[in-house]
Amino acid sequence: MTPIQPIPDSAIGNLILDDRQGGRFRVNRRVFTDDSILALERRKIFGKCWLYLGHESEVREPGSYIARDIVGRPIVLARDRDGQLHCYYNACTHRGATVCRQRAGKQRTFTCPYHAWVFDIQGKLVNIPGSDSMPQNCNADGSLNLARVERMESFRGFVFVCFDPDAEPLTDYLKGAADYLSYVADQGPQGMEIIGGAQEYSARANWKMLSENSVDGYHGMSTHSTYFDYLRGRDGTRIQRPPGGAGWTTDLGNGHMVSESIGEMAWGRPYARWVPGWGDDCRQEVEGIAAEIYRRLGPERGEVVVRGDRNMVIFPNLVVNDIMAVTVRTYYPSATGAMQINSWALAPIGESASSRDRRLRNFVEFLGPAGFATPDDVEMLESAQRGYAAGASAQAAWNDCSRGMFKDRPSKTDELQLRIFWRRWKQLMTGGSADQLQGP
């Protein structure tokens, strides 16, 4: 068999067919299978875009830190005794060994296990064994301190990094997604916090497929039918086909998008939409939470927080599911046809034990890797990845993402959200203009 040749950079744009007059939008399946494309993505997307690192609540106390890999780069986020955040590469400046070997904790210094160089919580080099053999004032310029990540900024508690020193400010990058992150941040009167621990799992599928799937309302009823059967049995809920069809998709700019609805979904929201399956004992508490939100945020914003459901993708690889619970999820390619996924539950600080219990039950039963939804999604993504092996045939070379192109306001079950993602992907991969991002 003749091997498939890598796609030259100049031909990347031909992999997205965007016929706006004809109402056809197609994506060539080589974007999911070609190693040369992933190599280009690492430079032009992951090397240029703002990427979610963590939440400020995870490093609340002085001396606390988290250590994470961001698209293969080991990074530490730490808070010093003055309350300032610091973000640096987890690599000793002597010979490169990782100095922070735990995922999270609280301490004053990091000692490299290789040659015992010591760095403080700010990343400054504070001790070198046998320093008399080093040049005098060898770190006067700070070059032996842990290297700081090029850019780190925070918005409403969400901490992002960027490896491009010339990148636009985070708030400019977020564009309309900033408003939706604020809807999440506004849920708790005392702020929001990550509930301890992370869910980590993998999928044998290209990373971009999870960006598509996370805001795709079209697959809900067919892929997650078991969950809707469960809701019918538990709550006696009547579920229309397709659920959420009355919802809509919003282009938030820069490739970010949200699929949302108000009061359409069948499940309960801890903050704050009661359902019969929770029992009458908690109804008064849930209604009280809703009343507090309306008083604090006003009727319009309160309605969005209390009764709204949102699935948002912040390009390229951050998903915030603000539905039956709040999930923060990232996913990075480990290979062209594989990704590593991490998700965290986000909750209001100080919520009652009963509300936290309802939240975690919702989180685990639907959103977690052992719940109703995630195993279904992983199975479908992996099935599609296997199907892409047929892409060598001209008849099986393209995905169609054309649903709703002639609608004034495409619904959640249309595919505007996919087109938003792919137009931004094409712009960054080809160096095109921002004019490419607009369209139905």
UniProtKB/TrEMBL annotation:
One of its GO terms (molecular function) is 2 iron, 2 sulfur cluster binding. Transmembrane segments: none annotated. Residues 51-136 form the Rieske domain. InterPro entries: Rieske_2Fe-2S (IPR017941), Rieske_2Fe-2S_sf (IPR036922), Ring_hydroxy_dOase_asu_C_dom (IPR015879), Rng_hydr_dOase-A (IPR001663). Keywords: 2Fe-2S, Iron, Iron-sulfur, Metal-binding, Oxidoreductase. PANTHER family: 3-PHENYLPROPIONATE_CINNAMIC ACID DIOXYGENASE SUBUNIT ALPHA, CHOLINE MONOOXYGENASE, CHLOROPLASTIC. This is Rieske 2Fe-2S domain-containing protein. It comes from Verticiella sediminum.
